[in-house]
Prior knowledge:
By secondary structure, the chain is mostly helical. 80% of the residues lie in helices and 0% in strands. Keywords: Membrane, Transmembrane, Transmembrane helix.
Amino acid sequence: MNRFVLDAKGFIQQHKASLILLLVICCYFGLSLASHTNGSTTNDAAFKNGYNWVDSVIHGYLGILLAAACFIVALIIGIAKQAPMAVIGGIIFALLIAFGPDMVTGIVNSSLIVVAV
């Protein structure tokens, strides 16, 4: 049993990026599948409440707090390790928190194909 746990731990450490990508793909597939229930009708209101909540959180004070916290934590780690890449990573993560939902919405809306009936 202990050998199995060690092998599993080694596998997870070796393939961490692939497993995270698999998790993201599974979450996306689940959301896509859930949003396309009820057959052929367009169900735009299925996730509207969730989208509005996430949008209000990100553009509200909590989003500003999360972005600032990411930057400050990355700055502290960068100073402690004397590595500028940690600070750059914190800035990028803070920008993703601040502008990520708008970018995703823009990408999704630009790729939708509208069929005239």
